[in-house]
Amino acid sequence: MQGSRKEHLYKVLVIGDLGVGKTSVIKRYVQQSFSPNYRATIGVDFALKVLNWNTETIRLQLWDIAGQERFGNMTRVYYREATGAFIVFDVTRPSTFEAVTKWKEDLDSKLSLPNGGGVAAVLLANKCDQGRDVLTNNGLKMEQFCKENGFVGWFETSAKENINIDEAASCLVKHIIANENDVLQSQARDAVKPQLNAQTSSSCSGCFRL
Description:
The chain is α/β, with parallel strands linked by helices. The chain has one domain (7-182): Rossmann fold (3-Layer(aba) Sandwich), CATH 3.40.50.300. It has six helices and six strands; from the N terminus they run E-H-E-E-H-E-H-H-E-H-E-H. It has a six-stranded mixed sheet with strand order 2-3-1-4-5-6, with helices on both faces. Strand 2 and strand 3 form a beta hairpin. It is found in: Endomembrane system; Membrane. It is a lipid-anchor.
């Protein structure tokens, strides 16, 4: 009798300024659909995406957080227990890119992993079907921006044309899993520490370099 597939549930935030296409990205990813007439999200909305990831089942709970919620007291509640985030800007509106660092700072100030590290965040340069801005034309500058601000990667995306949505999600999931493994290893090492401290024999004192 074969064992059942291992399942994981990850909470993923989708944040960014009003009108950058967060809802459209989620609808494309989850439902493979697009509409130009989505209403602005009020507060927060939810969607679920189920992935077969190698030999495991991954459930992504996507939290679509309204753009006007930035820096509000509620974002701390919305962010709680999230393991990853997409931060989205509109390539046709430079002000939404300028807001990216503020969203990232808000995220990092209110959410961290159990080991103190930041959650995995992927930057989405959305609506690339409508043209490319000066910044995204320079991939090296974007990569430098991501390194400086703690993003694990960035993608030019289009919910309308279904460009790079799945690829961006796969990148985020890969980093969420890597972070989870790092946390588990850290916890395992911490659990071993008291046992090592209790050892009187010097022969085991260097088994774990912590």
